[in-house]
Amino acid sequence: QVQLVESGGGLVQPGGSLRLSCAASASIFNINTMGWYRQAPGKQREFIARITSGGSTNYADSVKGRFTISRDNAKNTVYLQMTSLKPEDTAVYYCAADRGPLLPPSSQYWGQGTQVTVSS
Questions:
Q1: pLDDT reported for residue 25
Q2: Rg (Cα) of the chain, in Å, rounded?
Q3: Which residue in 7, 15, 26, 59 has a CA-CA distance of 20 to 30 Å to 82?
Q4: Is residue 71 within 8 Å of residue 77, measured between CB atoms?
Q5: What is the dihedral of CA 107, 112, 116, 117, to 10 degrees?
Q6: pLDDT tens per residue, the chain (120 residues)?
């Protein structure tokens, strides 16, 4: 069974940092792109960042300069380093993976989500 397992969410004060991790099970092969979406209460799921197997990255404008995505291909693991967190970053963060380069909302593999809450 294919699995993406996220970790690293939690409660952080505004201005703080968190690092999310997403490990893909060994049964996922030939994945090109991994990345993150998030969904806040009452809002649609939105794209945050993606990284291809070759290391090419893309970010949503809302997180550019604050979030950094990285990847360990040997471990099939993707990371999201989040800094300068704001209350509006509060959401459930979902890991996604796909064989194509774009990581669309219809991506093939999804994790269960991890809650990130930014509050004082």
A1: 84
A2: 13
A3: 26
A4: yes
A5: 120
A6: 668 999 999 999 999 999 999 999 876 667 889 999 999 999 999 999 999 988 999 999 999 999 999 999 888 899 999 999 999 999 999 999 999 999 999 999 999 999 999 999
**Helix %, strand %, coil % of the chain (to 5):** 5, 50, 45
CA dist., res. 120 & res. 106, Å (int):
35
Report strand pairing: 10-12 vs 67-72.
Answer: unpaired
Residue for token pair 């792109």: 33
pLDDT for 29 equals 67
Is 101 buried (19+), middle (13-18) or exposed (0-12) by CB count in 10 A?
middle
